[in-house]
Amino acid sequence: MLKRLVALLALIGSFIVVPAGPAAALDPFTGYLLAHFIGESARGEQIYFAHSRDGLNWTDLNGGSPVLLSTVGTQGVRDPALVRSPAGDRYWIVATDLRIASGTSWSDAANRGSTSLVVWESSDLVNWSQPRLINVAAGISGAGNAWAPEAIWNPATNDYVVYWATNSLRNGVTKHRIWYVRTSDFRTFTAPQLYIDRGSGQGIIDTQIIEAPNSAYRYYRASADGHITIEASNSVLGSWTTLGNLSHLGISNGTGGGNVVEGPMWAQFNGRSEWSLWLDQYATGRGYMPVTSTNLGSVQNFRTRTDYGMGGTRKRHGSILNLTAAEESRVLGRWGTNAPVNRIQSYNFQDRYVRHANLDVRIDPNVSPAQDAQFRVRPGLAGASGTVSFESVNYPGYYLRHYNYDLVLAPNDGSTTFAADATFRAVAGLANSSWTSYQSYNYPDRYLRHYSYLLRIDPVTTTQERADATFRLTT
Questions:
Q1: Where in the numbering of this chain does the Alpha-L-arabinofuranosidase B arabinose-binding domain appear (predicted)?
Q2: Which of 21, 172, 345, 368 has the most CB atoms around its CB within 10 Å?
Q3: Which of 335, 355, 373 is the last residue of a domain?
């Protein structure tokens, strides 16, 4: 087992980008993608996606299950930011490395937590790299954490400004302040610089910038700093003008009472000069609500809305990306249609089902948790007609694939080798034609079978082997 896991980890350690045409970021936008987490449940602090056509009503993608899992750092993520390159040919997700569900206290997380952020990279919004850690706060003296990251392209410096909150001692006061670094590739960074400090004892954790070039200012910033403060500037790293806050709407971040919110999240409505600012009503547990404006130059133009819907899951601090038709088609093609959930039943041990355990694959009875034996049958990753691939339900993006003829559960690294190893041709059952056998795509003389309850691909010649290689999909 140990050798198998070591070999698997070595195999999946690299990521090969799947070529894709430019996302044509300048094409008209047709939809919206929301990246978020859902809370402190066992799998709540991972990456979830939701989709909207109108920017107000959201549908959970991937059946409400996470689309990406963090396997680095704390193995949990919060506050994801979606970033698109100016050319529309590269995307990143940057998130807080934090998993409260593991038993971490908020005090430990803020004062002795991870100073790294978690980054995924993609060329098409669908195939994502393995997550990696970037220790952005390492250069901040006494840094206790790195929370709520955001990133924006800065044409003045021809790179990205990544900004986040770190709790540290400065000028005799320990509190959260916003820091930033610059990067062109989300791999190498400048030294951290102080970005926002409200002075006195007021901390600030959540802040997000939107570009609105046809408005009174080019950039607008919403920050949770006791109030929801709105600022404006014509330069990302220049001086900012305070426009006011949302206290006139009975909304604050605690200092002003009323509806206490956090996690401000901007979006512009497609095709018109109107913006939404989403606010997480965490104090009452009601989730996100939008306020909208047709003139960001004055906070008096914001109004609350009731004509919205957040879908089946509770959305927590995230970000919204406007989608072109090509981007929307890819995202919905991958996560919009929910393939049914199946189990794979053994023919000659009908109380046993295919399941994963510590990345290995076997047949077992009474599988617990039940999701370890649940898969979505996808069209074969290798693209051949009549083939299938098996994606794990509770490890989305992980597929059954063979490695040295042994079956393992592994994340799709986007390579042609992985696609071939994870693709099988469904044929009439070798032991019973009303059941199914699965022929290896790249080793067609071998079939999926169990041996001592472990799954592998083998040549099949005997009656016993034919029975071992016969299965049935059940719901």
A1: 343-472
A2: 345
A3: 335
The count of other CB atoms within 10 Å of the CB of residue 434 is: 8
272 and 155 inside one domain: yes
Name beta bridge partners: 268: 275
Scan for tokens 């954790």, then name that residue: 205
- pLDDT (tens digit, 9 = 90+) per residue, 256-309? 899 999 999 999 999 999 999 999 999 999 999 999 999 999 999 999 999 999
Task: Give the model confidence (pLDDT) of 122-179 as tens digits.
Answer: 999 998 998 999 999 999 999 999 999 999 999 999 999 999 999 999 999 999 999 9
Assigned domain for 456 exists = yes
Phi and psi torsions of 420, nearest 5°: -70, -40
- Write down the mean pLDDT value for the chain: 91
> Does one domain contain both 355 and 303?
no
Residues 258 and 400 in one domain: no
**Residues 6 or more apart whose Cβ sits within 8 Å of residue 42:** 101
Return phi, psi of residue 229, to 5°: -90, 130
Report the C-alpha gap between 311 and 234 in whole angstroms.
36
**Are the C-beta atoms of residues 264 and 210 closer than 8 Å to each other?**
no
> Do 82 and 213 have their domain in common?
yes
Tell me the C-alpha distance between 352 and 336, whole Å.
Answer: 31
Q: Which residue from 303, 301, 299, 300 is spatially nearest to 290, judged by alpha carbons?
A: 303
Q: Which residues pair with 162 in a beta bridge?
A: 151, 181
Tens digit of each residue's pLDDT (9 = 90 or more) over 173-209: 999 999 999 999 999 999 999 999 998 899 999 999 9
The pLDDT tens digits of the residues spanning 335-344 come to 886 678 899 9
| 207-253 pLDDT, tens digit each | 999 999 889 999 999 999 999 999 999 999 999 999 999 999 999 99
Q: What is the CATH number of the domain that holds 124?
A: 2.115.10.20
* 5 domain residue, yes or no: no
Q: Which domain holds residue 414?
A: 341-474
Residue that finishes a domain, picked among 284, 307, 335: 335
- Report the pLDDT value the prediction gives residue 337, as an integer from 0 to 100: 66
Query: Which pair of structure tokens corresponds to residue 402?
Result: 């063979």
Structure-token pair, residue 150: 């955001």
Task: Tell me if the pTM is above 0.85.
Answer: no
Number of folded domains that form the chain: 2
